[in-house]
From TrEMBL:
GO terms for biological process: signal transduction. It comes from the Eukaryota. One of its GO terms (molecular function) is zinc ion binding. Its main location: cytoplasm. One of its GO terms (cellular component) is microtubule. Keywords: Cytoplasm, Cytoskeleton, Metal-binding, Microtubule, Phosphoprotein, Zinc, Zinc-finger. SMART domains: RA (SM00314). The lineage of its organism: Eukaryota, Metazoa, Chordata, Craniata, Vertebrata. Residues 163-210 form the SARAH domain. It comes from Upupa epops. This is RASF3 protein. It is found in: Cytoplasm, Cytoskeleton.
């Protein structure tokens, strides 16, 4: 279920509580991605972000892979489903900074304003997906929830269709998207034509057998 407007109260922890939480967190980690508490009270750690992007992203052509359409030094292509990326961040990093860092890490040239970070959590045998505000701190949420991604995971998506900031797209990007859509439309059309041609051949073959003189 999507509960994008759901908001939980932000509970601030004391330095001692943070220290205890981190010790408990690290004792439960199974992938060596532990958190580190610094003397100034700021802690660092890792979060994993699953990419669930429906629209093509724009990257430098040297970094591109798969089906794409070119425009000068940039390439637009669809990211494979289920791609998960790991980021090393601090407790002071906000959602907006995490999105910017994630895009920069993979040479994505798109405007960060096109994307939103969601948290996915399990409650009472149900899965809830909630869009995070730009001011929230993902590492704090990770610390409070613990290291198990079954309890809490992060997902990067585009803004919903009604929220898309089309002014954030450049003309070359929009042109690339149109070329990709035209290509996909033509591919699907060819698939349909081939499918119905096969049906037609089989029907004609069956009819020929029925009406063939004995």
């Amino acid at each position: 279920k999507d509960a994008q407007k759901e908001r939980e109260p932000h509970v601030y922890l004391s330095k001692e509580e943070v220290k205890e939480k981190i010790q408990s967190y690290n004792s439960s980690v199974t992938d060596k991605l532990k958190m580190t508490l610094n003397a100034n009270g700021i802690y660092t750690g890792f979060i994993k972000v699953q990419m669930e992007l429906c629209r093509p992203i724009t990257v430098q052509s040297s970094q591109s892979q798969g089906r794409c359409a070119h425009s000068n030094n940039e390439t637009a292509f669809y990211l494979p489903d289920g791609c998960v990326n790991t980021l090393h961040i601090s407790s002071t990093n906000t959602v907006r900074e995490v999105i910017e860092a994630l895009l920069k890490k993979f040479f994505v040239a798109d405007n960060p304003a096109k994307f939103a970070l969601y948290k996915r959590c399990h409650k009472e045998d149900q899965v809830y997906t909630c869009k995070l505000s730009d001011r929230e701190h993902p590492l704090y949420l990770r610390l409070v929830a613990g290291p198990k991604t079954e309890m809490l995971s992060f997902v990067l998506r585009e803004h919903e269709t009604g929220e898309v900031m089309w002014e954030a797209f450049t003309i070359p990007e929009l042109q690339n998207f149109l070329r990709i859509l035209d290509k996909e439309e033509n591919e699907q059309l060819q698939i349909l034509k081939k499918r119905y041609a096969t049906y037609r051949d089989k029907l004609e073959e069956a009819l020929g057998g029925v009406w063939k003189p004995g």
